[in-house]
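Students often ask what a 'structure token' actually looks like in practice. Rather than answer in the abstract, let us consider Transcriptional regulator, a protein of 376 residues. Its sequence is given first.
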Amino acid sequence: MSPAWLKKIESGQRPIHSLTHLVRLAQALRLSDLSSLTGDPVSIPVNAIGKLSHPAVAEIRAALHGASLPSTPSLAPITPEALKARVDSAWRLWHSSTHQRTEVGSLLPGLIHDAHVCIRAHQEGDRRVAHAATGDLYRLVQRLLAHICEPELYWIALDRGRAHSEEADDPRSLALAAWSTAIGQRAAGYSEEAVRTDEAGMDLLRETLEGGDPEVLGIYGALNLQAAVSCGLDGLSGDAERYLEAAQHTAERLPAGYTHSQSAFDASNVALHGVTVGVGLLTPGEALRRAEAISPTSVKSLERRSRLLFDIAAGHHQRSETTAAFHYLNQAHRVSPEGVRYIPLARRLAADVAKAAPGPLKADAVELAEALGVAA
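Now compare that with the structural description of the same chain:
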């Protein structure tokens, strides 16, 4: 930016409306929070590479760094069953909240502390139950930290979840660890490794599939969907369709109304991932055709519903249909502001749409881009 621009900012002649400009100024001034520049009471942390962070990250980081160390004993350690109930409740909140990271983030530091106290207070079978619940907890931590923290912290959460699942010595917990590990591998660009990890998780469950346990079926279906998405991103359409078909067969065996608590796998989830696969394969026509069969309001998880609308927006953008892309991205933001705001692909799409928006739509597209933290 020019010295004249900066002088106008400093003198109050010109306000800064762009979050991107604020982030760049914060980087130059080595500030960790935009509120230092804006004077706003709401904290907006920014990390060293300019990625939008979240106020919950600092306390979660502190909890992760100190979790395994002895601490002041609680008045009474909770039971493994109580720990599992609290973790399951936090997962339900993740899927039902419009502001997942804010609401769940406030719970996680205390849960992390209580989980480790619970593990240390119990032995044998009870301890394995506590380890399984703690593995589920760290998978939620991993999900929350995606895109908003330094990579090392994300991988700490991922590895902790896997380690506690190993200590639980339960095939379902280990398969969930494979599911979350594959998500991390794909995000890091290792799609082939992610599919192999998904397959390893499926192998753990195949012998018990005939029993029809809904949780086993839910995990198995989620692993197939993750493999389908990874294949789609690699352009392997045949493999992607094969995994989608396997997931569909699995979903058909679920009891009516069942949704897996962590992955949100259910009968509608296969169609949602079919849209994601179509976008990844750069076949927007197929993605949008699949989307026509889905009623967004029928998707129970607000996070997943928001992602569906974002994928539809991305499909329209791939077809250079700017007005439709804006409409669905705006709808995704309305369903879950935090489900969109902290996703880099969503911010990039918002910036592209704002640049391409025709006259009557321009102001609204710019407003949405700014709400997602990108300069218009």
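One point worth highlighting: The chain has 20 helices and no strands. Ask yourself how you might have guessed this from the sequence alone, and why that guess would often be unreliable.
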